[in-house]
Structure prediction request, 857 residues.
Amino acid sequence: MRIRTFAAAVAVTGLALAACGSDGGGDADGASASSGASASTGGRANPDATVTIGAVLEPTSLDITRTSGVAPGQILLGNVYEGLVKRDQKGVVSPALATSYKISPDGRTYTFTLADNAAFQDGAAVRAADVVSSLTKVIAPNSTNPHASDLASISAVASPDPHTVVLTLKERDSGLLFNLTGPAGVVVREGATGLDGHPDGTGPFRFDSWRRGDSITLVRNDAYRGPKAKVARVVFRYLTAPNAQNNAVRTGQVDVGVISDNDLVEAYRGNPKFLIAEGTTTDKFTLAFNQDRGPLADARVRHAIRQGIDKDGLIKVLGAGTRIGSPVPPLDPWYEDLTSIDRYDPASARRLLAQAGHGGGLRLGLTIPNIYPQSIGDYVASQLREIGVTVDLRRVEFPAWLTGVYTKHDYDLSIVDHAEARDLAFYVKPGYYFGDRSPQASDLAKAGATAASDADRDTALRALARRYSEDAIADWLLLGKARQVARVGVTGYPTDNVSATYDLSKIEVAKS
Amino acid sequence: MLGWPWLPEWLGQPEWLGQPEWPERGGGPMAVIVLRRLGLLVVSLFVASLLVFALLRLLPGDAADVLAGTSASPDQVLRIRHEIGADRSLPAQYLHWIGGVLTGDFGVSALSGASVSAELSEKLRVTAPLVGGATLLALAVAVPLGILAAARHRRASGVALSALSQLGLAVPAFWIGLMLVTVFAVDWRLLPAGGFPADGWADPVAAVRALVLPAVTLAVVEAAVLLRFVRSATLEVLHADFIRTARSKGLTRGQALRRHGIRNAALPVVSMLGLEFATLLLGAVVVENVFALPGLGEMLVADIGNRDLVKVQGTVLLVTAAVLVVGFGVDLAHRLLDPRLRGAR
Prediction:
């Protein structure tokens, strides 16, 4: 019987830290910082401080059990809510409400031991029954939790005693622990209602207030069982317009802000009052091909389009980003550099189109939600024009994209940011708006999910990603980069994957 | 105002140009007129509610799609649609909504389940002072300058004022906003760059400071429009017979204008103000987005993007009602300003 406890997991975290430099360290991975930052204020922190963070995407609801997307999780995961396990900004899993777990040899039974001093915000202890009811609700047949598919492998949740929770799986699931760190895995009080207005969790922060359209305020949970947060209040201010965000940073209305526009970021370089921190994301800007109809059913056309777009040029236009050749970001264990497949080669692209019978030109529709920078669609359209593909650009509202493209599959080309972490298996789902519907692909996805070891999992998923790329089910234009500008004196803010989780536990403000 | 009384009655005439002074043609007492106008207001609101409801249903996508996002299964989308009641027939949805509105309950947000009435009243605390402040600012600038521009319409100063108002009309509001922020907030640090205090009006000074730049932005364009109206209305009055008569009695031009002209010139300006109110509310949408103000306009844009139709309906109906009520008020103001209208329908 294989027993894995969190002692091992913590050691792995430590290694990751040593290898990757700062994690959630706040300040700047060496490569990206314009000037060095201290990882902490060195004991001069002000415990009564309020930190204001400029964010972009405001949640539509704080009821994390019925809201899709990453916005509620960004502020609540790990800060207000906890799951049995949590992940750091680089995706490494570590303990949270559970102190240890055992996995049975067949990988189908997970036994979690709960922390005995965990409590909700009014002081009520977390019981195994709360965990059971939370997870049972997610996997119920009539579940309306949009993240339910994350836990689809669980068949039963039970608690043999008040400190133990047992998950029984339909089959092995190598992604289960990671998925339990996400919004599907949060533990809410049994019978809790009104979670939109009053998120009630067990984390180092308590929810204080939400001024819709403006800001969400969290305050330190002084009764937290672990290390206490280092600031008294955190305010997330939502500033959608890049200019408003920039002005708020510049005038000190926010301490840390997200600034993606290149010109705006450059203006801070060399300014001793500010630090620029760059981090990676899981934002995969994906040019999806509709293989079910028209010319894109022909693999030659899909390859031609991939070869006709110079991704480095797009990254230059946007000012930041990383080239990826598949939906796997470099931080995932099964990452492999696939950028050499379908390299930029307009001559070859034109040849492929001619072979496919489109030498005289081709006309395709491109649907893009209007929340993304206009330059992405314009760039792709102008690149494709060079190889003889005329693009009819349609910018639509996101709900219209959801209905037209995602649900009805009424499109030729579509660009969307697939922001979810570790979403490789999405693209073999039957009925997904694009993907690889071959049995080989779903076998690989299944082999990855049910792998008995990490090595087996990585091998299968690496092969799956390669297959996606070689079959050209889509083109991955770039992986987004998150750029934050912070006032000097604020440290410990996370830099990586900040749109899915934003770990506030290490943020400090120097005494002024 | 020469000539109007001799036009055939069936042609009608714009009310603000004045009705014939003589016969009371069965208009009835003021109370009846007010009641009749109120009835019209209610019918208009009912028609507006139908239109708003129906037109919003033409938008592609709904709140269930947004709630479900890109990871839920099609079955789940159906369940979510059922849960938020978006799978009921349209007449049923309309009746449910309008029934609530009649009792002052605007329903709940499909996305968050929060009460729409509560949110509307919170947003109004930002938008109402913003629009009100901008109107007052615009009036304070436009009325004196407009009269001045008319009085000096042949002199350089009058022409300069006229040109200035033309410029105010031509420049987009959001650009003015951006410039004001750059100068007053970023460079000089005199006022906040945007946002509204988290505790609302608990600190009135902070709240007013937050609204200064947005209100000025909104007022610039408004003042330009009004200035032109005040100017042309005053010019028209200046050439009217009664001013000539007043002058012939020995009054100076200024005296004649102050004692007899301004009241007459006010009529078209009040009408214009009523019409411009709708434009101001529209401008608030832009200005609130530029200044990240948590007001009605900013909320409306976000809600449309999320297909939170119950909230959108409530907001649009509220704004429509405000415009209609202001129109009603303008109508009454007319009758008060112009005794000749009191008997008219």
Q: What stands out?
A: Chain B touches chain A through 52 residues (CB under 8 Å). The first helix of chain B runs from residue 30 to 56. Confidence is low (pLDDT under 50) at residues 1-26 of chain B.
